[in-house]
């Protein structure tokens, strides 16, 4: 049952308060011609030696050591760290229960161990090349030619959703050239497209857009009318932390910089659900609760937790290890819109607190796409208008803003789909009744296709 759910949607419900998610399957619903390569997404935590071990046996072997470390550590905690430890103890039962449910889902564990090679044809799974370095958008912004930098969007001629004077573009389509910085770059079509920038290629999802700028230009993202604002705002700030600084993964900012984010102005007239990623540092939680949320006009509602596991279901670290706990927190809150003051506020579903979602992490600092898990709690009409601030990748239907929203859109992270069946062809097969799957299978074998579009 859990396996079927995961295959269909990328999300599998473990119990009433916990889910396992496969970010690759979720992301691939944004693409038609390309697919996120699982072998490049899951670049960590697939150690074959560790994967062969039993999760429970490994956990038992660490119990004594963990208890000794914990006892010694608690004795030396300062007042703020003691508060953080109390938070941890409160959420720990929910994390353990969620992890227990995963370890009992034996069919799901089998799928989990193969996620890195999932859907790859022979010879298709690839490693990230060390030779082909990624383009540094931060460095590019520093050159004097930055305001003139252009990105080329290569549309496909069969994308009939694109219009030219009211008529579908069914003939050859000229590439669209547009400024890449301080400019809203959009793919309004129903197909993903390939874009080019300084000999680097990027895959842009269908019906998505990005605005690449620094903090000084974020006001340009504010919609002209509040009814055009966003009702789901996901924020993953580059918080200052020793790990990011030491590994030089991305530039960080002092906490005070985030006070100027125009969250209230970005909200839809019906209000918005704000989802903020935070680290486990108590100083940061205190800053968010007492300074940041009040400044943004956000009222705290609940906390979700992302529990990280390896390919064999084991946690990526010791749960009670103070400074390197294998989970991160997503704080949820509501920002009121104009309608809430006029008596027309939308009736909202209550957000369950301490909900846990589990996944195998991707690259460093890359967060799993959790937007769909939040849609039930978003105010306003559907479909939701969604934006991610400090984004490093793109999702269909979303606006992505930040210094490097194209980071994980680099073609190195993708492979081409081969023999993807179209919607019209699928409908044709379905009309044949119970034999439609046989017809599809035969067609795939005949054309040498390796996989089909699972979203159809």
TrEMBL record:
<dbReference type="GO" id="GO:0008168">
    <property type="term" value="F:methyltransferase activity"/>
</dbReference>
<protein>
    <recommendedName>
        <fullName>Methyltransferase-like protein 2</fullName>
    </recommendedName>
</protein>
<dbReference type="InterPro" id="IPR007757">
    <property type="entry name" value="MT-A70-like"/>
</dbReference>
<feature type="compositionally biased region" description="Basic residues">
    <location>
        <begin position="63"/>
        <end position="74"/>
    </location>
</feature>
<feature type="region of interest" description="Disordered">
    <location>
        <begin position="52"/>
        <end position="82"/>
    </location>
</feature>
<comment type="similarity">
    <text>Belongs to the MT-A70-like family.</text>
</comment>
<dbReference type="GO" id="GO:0005634">
    <property type="term" value="C:nucleus"/>
</dbReference>
<dbReference type="Pfam" id="PF05063">
    <property type="entry name" value="MT-A70"/>
</dbReference>
